[in-house]
């Protein structure tokens, strides 16, 4: 359901209107086939009819409206190769399709011309969905297959998610249920979907043959990897335009010589400041106290896994080209020893706020020059999954490689990655191309890119709850805290970015056997401790909050109001007066008893920024015009 944004600060509607909306998803092509072949994305990949394809009202049941494209075995749609951009390395292809007969090979999406070794996907012999993935010069794999005994005249939603090191296939049936899936891995590569040498054919193999006799609908391509939850949402009828997707982010390299140029500052707000290894004490740089991470004791918001070799702590090399306390960070480290060629070390930053802007920095330096280069493929997955949204190759020990090339013994860098996570995790992977080498992880920070404010929450529930904050309503978000002391208000305080749309998410649990759903009461204040934000205050109520019994991302309905704290049916409880008069108990309603005794509540809010002087002049001018008009009336 759509909900308006509210900030209880008076006369702030004009200011809020000046705040930029979140970045649009990386959707590159989208064809609805609702009477035409127009690309509904912003990239202009409009189709051309060949052999008189038709449009008809037979559409997938979960979509329910519009039209689909009819193909008779000699008709298809072509899209010219793009000349100004390319989609390669990581991509997703999704489509609804059905065939009138199950035999043979019937191709529904193909990018194998004018040059071969692109991508294709087809129904094959009534037993599988078959795909081929190429890099433009050779095949990466010709067996990207999902086994399924498909039926004639039945709709299937098919998704291929392709990355530099593997693929996932998801096939949903007409009801939106997952009917088949498959995955595969291969050596590091650069798969090609579309570029100046690879256009699109829908409904046949672009070299001629393998025609599809049936229908296709809602075909879409992304220049990044979708996860299963996003694909499932598409299969349930969501438009590709409505799917929030991870942004690729940007990377830069910051040389470090001392505390002054290291970029670490107590004026910034960090979610993570991790010092890796056994050195003692943990680094304290420019007033920022780091948290120690060792193999035996990882912080709760950080993890390290390796698929080869053994995870180890190392005291490090005491010789530095850096001075000051930053040397504490760049001495000891953790690594995976005995690594095989192609081995991967994965570090994850956990409990992030989905949809907000961050800068993650990995701190590194040259170790030594070995017999083989210490070459690492570094990938960043902003949804915490295995498919990267950004990837770069770095040699830690060789200045001739770029970027960045660590150009002197023990020269230090911060590798900065600016991004917006889709989920509450960022995965950073280091794949070593040579054996017995590994990435040396000295430390990592993660900072908000926007100024922040404290949001203070007071909450209690009948009977227990978890409190989250998210920038995407369909994502659970970062866990702030939890409680089970019904009748005992609990206080939480946490950092949120100023000027970004956010959601409070509450998961409430009722005691087993209770006849109705959980109830929650809370109040929230923000922007009080900083001169960069306007004050904001809101309460749980039945007007602006919404909820359901199924989960975030599903449709929500208004809540039911059960009055202020201490009012029946809960009665007088400890701490009456602890909540403001605007705070009311809310729940789903009488007799509603969700499976698992769990409810999901959501509220949209923003901590608004203090207006710039020009904005204040604009606001004052608008109020003056209104006053003059009022006097004339």
Fold and architecture overview:
There is one protein chain. With 633 residues, the chain is mainly β. It folds into 3 domains: 27-242, Jelly Rolls (Sandwich), CATH 2.60.120; 250-448, Galactose-binding domain-like (Jelly Rolls), CATH 2.60.120.260; 452-605, no CATH class. 6% of the residues lie in helices and 40% in strands. It contains 4 helices and 44 strands. Strands 1, 3, 4, 7, 12, 13, 14 and 17 form an 8-stranded antiparallel beta sheet that branches. A hairpin with a 4-residue loop joins β10 and β11. The protein is globular. The two termini are 39 Å apart.
Low-confidence stretches: 1-25, 402-407, 614-633
How many β-strands, per DSSP? 44
The assigned structural class equals mainly beta
Rg on CA atoms, Å: 27 Å
Features:
633 residues; mainly beta; Jelly Rolls; 3 domains; eight-stranded antiparallel β-sheet; six-stranded mixed β-sheet; 4 helices; 6% helix; globular; disordered N terminus; disordered C terminus
Short recap of the structure:
Helix content is 6%, strand content 40%. The protein contains four helices and 44 strands.
Topology:
Elements: H1 13-17, E1 27-31, E2 48-50, E3 54-56, E4 68-72, E5 76-79, E6 87-88, E7 91-99, E8 105-110, E9 119-124, E10 128-134, E11 139-147, E12 156-163, E13 166-172, E14 178-185, E15 192-194, E16 200-202, E17 213-222, H2 228-235, E18 250-256, E19 270-276, E20 284-285, E21 288-289, E22 291-293, E23 302-306, E24 310-314, H3 326-329, E25 333-337, E26 344-349, E27 358-365, E28 375-381, E29 390-395, E30 412-419, E31 426-432, E32 443-448, E33 452-462, E34 464-470, E35 478-483, E36 490-497, E37 502-509, E38 519-526, E39 536-539, E40 546-548, E41 557-558, E42 560-564, E43 584-587, E44 598-605, H4 613-632
Parallel strand pairs: 19-22
Antiparallel strand pairs: 1-17, 2-5, 3-4, 4-17, 5-16, 6-15, 7-12, 7-17, 8-9, 9-10, 10-11, 12-13, 13-14, 18-30, 19-32, 20-21, 23-26, 24-25, 26-31, 27-30, 27-32, 28-29, 28-31, 33-36, 33-38, 34-35, 34-37, 37-44, 38-39, 40-41, 40-44, 42-43
């Amino acid at each position: 359901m759509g909900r308006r944004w509210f900030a209880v600060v008076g006369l702030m509607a004009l200011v809020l209107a000046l705040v930029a909306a979140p970045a649009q998803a990386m959707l590159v092509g989208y064809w609805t086939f609702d009477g035409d072949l127009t690309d509904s994305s912003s990239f202009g990949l409009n189709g051309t009819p060949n052999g008189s394809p038709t449009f008809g009202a037979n559409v997938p049941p979960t979509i329910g409206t519009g039209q689909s494209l009819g193909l008779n075995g000699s008709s298809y749609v072509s899209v010219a190769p793009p000349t100004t951009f390319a989609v390669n390395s990581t991509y997703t292809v999704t489509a609804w399709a059905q065939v009138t007969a199950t035999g043979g090979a019937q191709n529904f999406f193909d990018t194998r011309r004018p040059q071969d070794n692109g991508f294709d996907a087809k129904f094959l012999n009534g037993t599988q969905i078959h795909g081929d993935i190429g890099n433009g010069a050779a095949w990466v794999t010709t067996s990207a297959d999902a086994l399924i005994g498909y039926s004639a005249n039945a709709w299937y939603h098919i998704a291929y998610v392709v990355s530099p090191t593997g693929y996932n296939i998801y096939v949903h049936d007409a009801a939106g249920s997952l009917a088949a899936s498959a995955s595969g891995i291969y050596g590091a590569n650069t798969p090609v979907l579309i570029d100046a040498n690879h256009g699109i054919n829908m409904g046949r193999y672009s070299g001629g043959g393998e025609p599809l006799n049936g229908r296709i609908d809602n075909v879409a391509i992304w220049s990044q990897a979708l996860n299963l939850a996003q694909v499932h949402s598409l299969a349930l009828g969501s438009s590709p335009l409505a799917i929030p997707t991870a942004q690729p982010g940007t990377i830069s390299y910051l040389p470090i010589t001392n505390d002054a140029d290291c970029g670490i500052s107590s004026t910034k707000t960090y979610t993570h400041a991790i010092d890796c290894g056994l050195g003692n004490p943990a680094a304290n740089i420019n007033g920022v106290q780091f948290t120690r991470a060792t193999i035996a004791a990882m912080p709760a918001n950080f993890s390290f896994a390796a698929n080869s070799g053994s995870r180890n702590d190392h005291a490090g090399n005491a010789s530095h080209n850096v001075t000051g306390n930053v040397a504490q960070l760049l001495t000891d480290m953790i690594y995976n020893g005995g690594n095989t060629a192609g081995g991967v070390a994965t570090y994850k930053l956990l409990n992030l706020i989905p949809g907000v802007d961050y800068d993650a920095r990995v701190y590194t330096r040259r170790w030594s020059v070995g017999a083989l280069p210490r070459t690492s493929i570094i990938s960043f997955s902003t949804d915490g999954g295995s498919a990267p949204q950004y990837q770069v190759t770095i040699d830690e020990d060789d200045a001739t490689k770029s970027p960045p090339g660590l150009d002197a013994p023990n020269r230090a860098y911060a590798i900065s990655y600016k991004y917006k996570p889709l989920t509450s995790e960022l995965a950073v992977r280091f794949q070593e191309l040579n054996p017995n080498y590994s990435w040396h992880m000295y430390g990592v920070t993660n900072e908000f890119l926007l100024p922040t404010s404290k949001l203070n929450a007071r909450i209690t529930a009948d009977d227990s709850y978890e409190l989250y904050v998210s920038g995407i309503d369909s994502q659970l978000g970062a866990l702030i805290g939890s409680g089970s002391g019904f009748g005992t208000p609990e206080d939480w305080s946490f950092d949120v970015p100023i000027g970004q749309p956010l959601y409070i998410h509450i998961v409430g649990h009722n005691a087993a056997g209770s006849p109705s759903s959980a109830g929650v009461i809370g109040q929230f204040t923000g922007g009080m401790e900083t001169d960069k934000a306007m004050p904001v205050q809101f309460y749980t109520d039945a007007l602006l909050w919404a909820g359901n019994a199924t989960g975030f991302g599903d449709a929500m309905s208004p809540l039911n109001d059960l009055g202020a704290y201490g009012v029946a049916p809960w009665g007088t409880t400890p701490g009456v007066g602890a909540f403001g008069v605007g705070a009311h108990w809310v729940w789903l309603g009488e007799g509603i008893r969700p499976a698992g005794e769990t409810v999901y509540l959501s509220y949209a809010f923003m901590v608004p920024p203090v207006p710039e002087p020009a904005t204040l002049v604009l606001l004052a001018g608008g109020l003056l015009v209104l006053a003059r008009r009022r006097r004339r009336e």
